[in-house]
Write a structure and sequence with these properties.
Elements: E1 3-6, E2 28-29, H1 39-43, E3 49-51, E4 57-59, H2 69-73, E5 75-76, H3 81-93, E6 96-99, E7 104-105, E8 110-111, H4 120-126, H5 148-151, E9 158-165, E10 172-173, H6 174-185, E11 190-191, H7 196-199, E12 201-203, E13 208-209, E14 217-218, E15 221-228, H8 232-243, E16 250-255, H9 265-272
Parallel strand pairs: 1-6, 5-7
Antiparallel strand pairs: 2-8, 3-4, 9-15, 9-16, 10-14, 11-15, 12-13
Helix pairs in contact: 6-8
Length: 297
Amino acid sequence: MDTILSLSLKQTYVRSKIVANPKDIKMEIDKKKCVGCGNCHAVCTMGVIYLDEDGKSVVNQDECVECYTCYRVLRNEGYIPWFVRAIRKILSLFRLGYLAEVDVCPTGALTPPELKWPRSIRAQFSDPTTTHPGTGIRGRGTEEIKTNDVTGRLRRGEAGLVVEIGRPGTGAFFRDIEKVAVALAKLKPHFESKNPITQLMVSPETGKLRDDILNEKALSAIIEMKIELERIPEFLHALEQIQREIDTVTSVGMASKCQPDGTIPHEEWVRKAGYILSPNGKTNIGLGRPLFKEKES
């Protein structure tokens, strides 16, 4: 039986230089430096880094969403590649193996060259450290609905509907995101204008996205809209139908203003549509000073 030793050749390490604009990089692996330790495979959010036939790691560029996780998480130990390979070869003669610490790239093989449009949109939606140029905040959506006391986005009789498309390990191509947006646009919702997906629409009336991004992929994306409470069943059934036509997963969030008696208006309409609400909702309990007050009708 082979024995694996976890060796640290030195205690100090050199951190990789952090690039100022993560959205402008593309993740590749320098095969001249890679020693095939496999640490980057484990941290890849999409599971798309693998060993090539030459025993060195390679990134599936079609499936990579440029989330930047491997480059941010794995510290560069700065070893010379031939030295690491020599140590591994010597150990193999004694049926031993060199296993690098799990949070390192021993030779700094992860290489980030420039990333051009439209591929840069992958990082904008997938890298949580990147400020989205369309919203001015980090992340795939706008400020969460729990800020409603300030923004007044939702009024009585209205529901906020969010559809998240994609998940780590699966992701979502923008062509599938477009299918969902087009299906919902037929029902005439009010798409949130500040939402990144809305900003990519050729026209919110149709839900059609820009053609040049359809073959790009993101870790996930969020479509945000506002609808009348009584139309909740109509939208949920439409989402159930379009889910069968896309090659990814979706999750749906619903929000509405609580009634004075503490009841939640959208719960009734979700039940009428035949769905069960997950208990992991977010509730604004109003401890802050409300900057928006809806006028009584």
